[in-house]
């Protein structure tokens, strides 16, 4: 066994009496079969921890894992911020030359970037905006415009390059290529009668602006010109302020039989949205990064939108690439700036269990194309998409035989669990609630595309409780965009805008809803959809129905010693 202690010494032997100081030193010394025991404290990384196939067969665990004496271990990519001075305006400032971050944590609390709602009369031009309001002329710093609802399911971010003006008007010049890309991407045409009909462009109307000292309110920050500006909450102590600086905490490539037990991964950022390319979100964790754009026609030709031909995807702050038989147990992934945890590339039999994923700027967990027989079980994923509101809690894309079971997913700004095209996904006995809190056109559980080639190889969505799907125009359990070979069985779906949807474009094929309980009749089943043995209950009847109670009792996290410690 090897030992690592933040107060240790890398020149020592790594024993309990003389532990190493860094994880990198322990990695270099570990052999297959080694247990690396991390002592209590914050293990700060100055560069990502990188594992290769040669680092396989090693267990990294909190000291005393699985016992009452288990120690609290944090692997952090953050930098403490000190040297604060209070100015006459009550704002505290700290010189941070070279610091690049999009997040700040004060005593563990996420401090939001200073922001204002844009209710100014902005007119879009080829290079930005003009307004007869002179106020933007006083906005100093590296300002960013946010476009909530650029599409109903999308939220974009574009940097501002320059603001000029006088006492009567202002001109906002936007950074390129982000602004030009946004004007081409967020173009739609709705030809049916009703709200939103006609031609529109999501770049016309930014909804808020961020990151100017002029926008500060209590508890928020702005980073401008190498200076952090922070307006404290009443009585707040600035003795523990951390700025995430690493974009990657751990990147493991081609490893196998590696375990991380009882460890918290924390304090990472993702800087791409600050670049001139901005962050032009499309769906899930996908965004436009230049290249081909396509026009998608839907609703029998009554509408069309522009979409990326080959979207880029938000990266993980903890990444396992081509990895197999990796176990993450009793861990926590928190204060992350992109996707908290990502499995990418071909790999098999990786497991996340009894863990917590929370306070994440982007997506929670992503299992990507090529993954085989991965499992996420008994894990709580909540307060996801804190900065990037289209991000889902759990996303499967191109996976095979993935199982999501007995998890709890809540407090998500868009969809909770997303299953894109793949094969054999099983979404079983999860509790999904308080999703769709910000954006529209999504669901607590969202499934799209082909899920197999037969009933036996398709997706199974069973035993889940989906409730409190909040914003208008959502579906608690949403089978969408040509979903095929999906069985939706024995779920409870209520308190959504609509519990399920049957008519989508492209149409559903080989989709069966059987034995479900919901609070609204979904209507007649079109060709390709089978409805069998489902029960529609009035909302007040849900608490008293025995069939509902049995499903509710079996859904969500089953308490274990490690989940109790993780919370």
TrEMBL record:
Species: Nonomuraea roseola
Superkingdom per UniProt: Bacteria
SUPFAM superfamilies referenced in this protein's UniProt entry, alphabetically: Pectin lyase-like
Record-linked Gene3D superfamilies: Single-stranded right-handed beta-helix, Pectin lyase-like
Coiled coil segments of this chain: none
Pfam families, per database record: Beta_helix
Domain Right handed beta helix: 318-452
This protein's name: Right-handed parallel beta-helix repeat-containing protein
InterPro entries, per database record: Beta_helix, PbH1, Pectin_lyas_fold, Pectin_lyase_fold/virulence
